[in-house]
Design a protein that fits this description.
alpha+beta; four-stranded antiparallel sheet
Length: about 240
């Protein structure tokens, strides 16, 4: 059967092929599904709404499809959608019950916090395991008001994906967290380049610190990561370079 030729039809675009009275059915469907979903979502509790774990994202996607389709598809019965919504919410409650009683199940479903920074140095292996770039971590630390890595005692990526920071009580000089696009981004020194003066230098990628004497050369690469670039460790954001200790 030969398809009908395409035409730019505003009535089809805005109203569709169904009669205008179907808008009343859409309104009725939307109210029913909205009220029913609102009642069931209350069963999820505040945790389900405030801290999204990987499993919670699955819940959101499943509910989004189950709630949205019957609101405007005339061939999707409301009862079918209500069954799907009910099962999804009950599954979430069941999984919450299981994770509260089993540490193994909680680790599998919600994962665990993973350390990304320890005493001013990025845990490069864990960063790579989480599929993160160092610049993404540095941006998250800047949001927490961190000026340089030496201010961070510990930093974790939480199951929700948020970065949590424990500040050091005795900050040490570290890799400055100035954005690379900032005109005041500090000078980068490359591998085997001559050390201009005695100071503590931090790896551009992970923040590993080395005290280097003047006249020597920068290492071929960082002992903790593949980076070959170095920045002078600082106590402040843009100034007060560290001295050789």
């Amino acid at each position: 059967m030969k398809p009908e030729p395409y035409s730019f039809d505003l009535e089809r675009i805005f109203i569709g092929d169904l009669p205008l009275v179907f808008l009343g059915e859409v309104l009725f469907r939307t109210v029913i599904i909205y009220v029913y979903t609102l009642i069931l979502v209350r069963l999820l509790g505040k945790r389900g709404l405030g801290q999204l774990s990987p499993f919670d994202f699955v819940i959101v996607i499943a509910l989004g499809s189950a709630v949205g389709d019957p609101m405007f598809y005339d061939d999707v019965p409301i009862l079918h959608s209500m069954v799907v919504i009910t099962v999804v919410v009950l599954l979430q409650r069941g999984v919450s019950w299981l994770t509260e009683r089993s540490a193994r199940a909680q680790r599998f479903i919600d994962s665990e916090p993973r350390r990304l920074v320890c005493r001013g140095v990025v845990d490069f292996e864990n960063l790579r395991e989480e599929l993160l770039e160092s610049e993404e971590l540095f941006a998250a630390l800047r949001i927490h008001g961190v000026r340089q890595l030496g201010e961070v005692e510990l930093a974790y990526i939480e199951p929700s994906g948020a970065i949590s920071v424990i500040s050091s009580k005795a900050p040490s000089p570290g890799r400055p967290l100035v954005a690379r696009t900032d005109p005041n981004f500090p000078k980068r020194y490359e591998a085997r380049e001559r050390v201009p003066h005695g100071a503590s230098f931090a790896c551009d990628c992970c923040g590993e610190r080395l005290a280097l004497a003047p006249g020597g050369s920068f290492p071929a690469h960082c002992p903790r990561c593949p980076s070959t670039a170095w920045l002078e460790a600082t106590s402040e954001l843009l100034g007060e370079p560290s001295t050789l200790r």
